[in-house]
Automatic annotation (TrEMBL):
This is Peptide deformylase. The gene is def. Gene3D superfamilies: Peptide deformylase. GO terms for molecular function: metal ion binding; peptide deformylase activity. Keywords: Hydrolase, Iron, Metal-binding, Protein biosynthesis.
Length: 166
């Protein structure tokens, strides 16, 4: 289908809780195709539907040799073992901050046929699953930063040309 235009920090759709996917039709298939096409760009690991302006619970991923999507994903397992890892976001370009994430994660959801899907991840894939699931709940990785880092990150983001202003 198409590589879709990204939404940037400040856009209200990124802070809204996405609605569940309830229709498994051609429109949903087109959304999944667009998510997969858009995540294919260089330096991209994951993409949630709100990042392209669609308020539905869907995301795509392209981490190393794993490419796919999940509809109505839920984080069902996170390891107790965590680490701080540099994190960035397509909706907050050019800014990277150390973010605490679980080292392992499991997401369950469905595919386009409404059949169950489970995705397991460690390292970068675990980070991606957590990051994209957060997007669907209106959470940006900046929200997960320690207070002093968050203030710095928000200040930097608001000074960027891409920052969404009303």
């Amino acid at each position: 289908m198409a590589v879709r235009e990204l939404r940037y920090f400040g856009d209200p759709v990124l802070k809204s809780v996405a609605d569940p996917v309830t229709r498994f039709d051609k429109a949903t298939e087109a959304l999944v195709t667009d998510l997969l096409d858009t995540v294919e760009g260089p330096g991209r690991a994951g993409l949630a539907a709100p990042q392209i302006g669609v308020g539905l619970r869907a995301f795509s991923y392209h981490v190393e040799d794993q490419v796919g999507y999940v509809l109505n994903p839920e984080l069902v397992e996170l390891s107790e073992e965590t680490h701080e890892i540099d994190e960035g976001c397509l909706s907050v370009p050019e800014l990277w901050f150390a973010t605490r994430r679980a080292k392992r994660a499991v997401v369950r959801g469905v595919d386009l046929r409404n059949e169950p899907v489970t995705v397991h991840g460690e390292g970068l894939m675990a980070q991606c699953l957590q990051h994209e699931a957060d997007h669907l709940d209106g959470i940006l990785y900046l929200d997960r930063l320690a207070a002093n880092r968050k203030r710095e990150a928000l200040r930097e983001a608001r000074q960027r040309d891409w920052f969404w202003r009303r």
